[in-house]
Amino acid sequence: MNNLTSTRKQRHVLVVEDEEEIVRLISFHLEKEGYLVYSIGNGKEALNYAFEALPDLVILDIMLPEMDGLEVCRRLRSNDKTASIPILILSARKEELDKVLGLELGADDYMVKPFSVRELVARVKAMLRRSEYITQGSDDIQSEKILTSGGITLYPERHQVTVNDQRCALSHKEFVLLQLLMANAGKVLSRELLLDKVWGYEVEVDTRTVDVHIRHLRQKIEEDPARPSYIETVRGVGYRFSDR
Questions:
Q1: Are strands 147-149 and 109-112 parallel, antiparallel or unpaired?
Q2: For 103-145, how does the pLDDT look when each residue is reduced to its tens digit (9 = 90+)?
Q3: Adjacent-strand bridge partners of 10
Q4: Residues 117 and 161 in one domain
Q5: 108 and 168 co-located in one domain
Q6: H helix count then E strand count, the chain
Q7: What is the pTM of this model?
Q8: Hey, which of 59, 97, 175, 224 would disulfide with 170, CB 3.0 to 4.6 Å?
Q9: How far is CA 2 from CA 46, 57, 58, 155, in A?
Q10: Where does the chain have alpha helices with state H?
């Protein structure tokens, strides 16, 4: 389980959770699916491990010793090496504010305890499938052209974005969302369509999740996020990437 070098071809999932029973449950079912699972019950230790090992996905509890999961999420997203790693927050905190805050800090998904193991495995599979498609490439991705608009350049093959020639660290969901908007510049894309294309599976996620990710994306690529020049809001419908 700790021998990463000999099994690196396996998809590597880091479970950051201090409840041993939940760790055993998640590990058992993910390992059955062929994933390499490594668990840590301490937020600070998990962050240091993630920076060194660069897992393919992180399942992250909020209530953790030394450093809570929200702070771990924030630091993962602010580091270039870990910015694009998919993060699934798993928490007993059901308040809408916690969910929105987690998404604003860069989490890709949020599940509330108690949870369905079958649903968790399905979400992990979907997140890793989309991450692999973007970061490792496929025939479709390799044939996609570089997208440029104003000072923004998006490189599909490298999973990289620059703003005014400066590297911009985006989460996996933010990258896919920006890629979809830029590829359809000038077209209005509804929240429902964006939710389907970017998240792509049936979960308890509503269109406000799209709004949260758009706001986070604007903070990274817009000169003035309050008056965006790239990602325009079409009231009552959705969003449009400006083709001006």
A1: unpaired
A2: 777 788 888 888 899 999 998 998 887 666 544 444 444 445 7
A3: none
A4: no
A5: no
A6: 9, 12
A7: 0.66
A8: 175
A9: 14, 16, 16, 34
A10: 20-32, 43-53, 69-78, 96-104, 117-135, 139-143, 172-183, 191-194, 207-221
